[in-house]
Write a structure and sequence with these properties.
The protein is built from ten helices and eight strands. It is an alpha+beta fold and 269 residues long. The chain folds into two domains: 65 residues, Winged helix-like DNA-binding domain superfamily/Winged helix DNA-binding domain (Arc Repressor Mutant, subunit A, Orthogonal Bundle), CATH 1.10.10; 193 residues, Beta-Lactamase, CATH 3.30.450.40. The strands form two sheets. The chain has a six-stranded antiparallel sheet with strand order 5-4-3-8-7-6, with helices on both faces. It is globular.
Amino acid sequence: MVNDEDGIQLKTTKTSLKIIEKIQELDGATVRQLSDHFNLSKTAIHKHISTLESMGYLQREGEIYQVGLTFLHLGMYSKNRMIGSKMIDKKVTELSNLTSEESDFGVLNNSMVLIISEEYHTEENYLSSYQPDSFTEHAGVGSYYHLHTTAIGKAILAELEDNKIDNLISGSLVKNTEHTITEKDEFIQEIDRVRNQGYAIDDEEFAEGLVGVGKSVKKSNGGVIGAISVTGPKYRLQNDKIQQNILPNLDKIVHEIEKEWHKDAINSI
């Protein structure tokens, strides 16, 4: 049974983490902003942020607090200790070169897609020629995305049991564009389609004008490691290119990652 003291400590830790998340969401925040948002006194907020700042988790810029670089150190440690991390980076780069498009690898984390590897081909220039309001910068390593809006997310979900999918999409489905699937029943049908065809497509569901094609990457026991995708402007990722270039190269890279990951997993034992 948790005693009161333990309960207070857990609540304090949760509040500190929520403060960090809010600072990131706001791209920096003052003590007053945090106090108003969390309905806590400035003194209470100051205790949290002073502790976090002293440990490098926050940094102060005048009156504004920002997330500190300690998280970069921890994030890189977490990524680098993953089985096959460096190999996945190489394969993402290879896929980008084979398709002349953006390539990303993502995993399921905190009920969202977390990008852990990315590569942009030198000829991949859709941002310079097409910049929809909803997509003004590249996806970066460490970026989170809603599962239902990306090819990576759909590919991962298609490997999970139905009850797990229900839990992950139990809330409302965020609408990124007019093409985003926001009805649960329709999205379940989409997942069935992904399972049947063996790959996922994000057809302007994340951002207007962009198409993504993704496939899951699995362990030898059938568990899902993550998913890899190719993304580009719709005028380039037409069905012919998807069928003749994107999918064959996705199949190739997925097979190689799974094979190498299995070797790395055995060697890590």
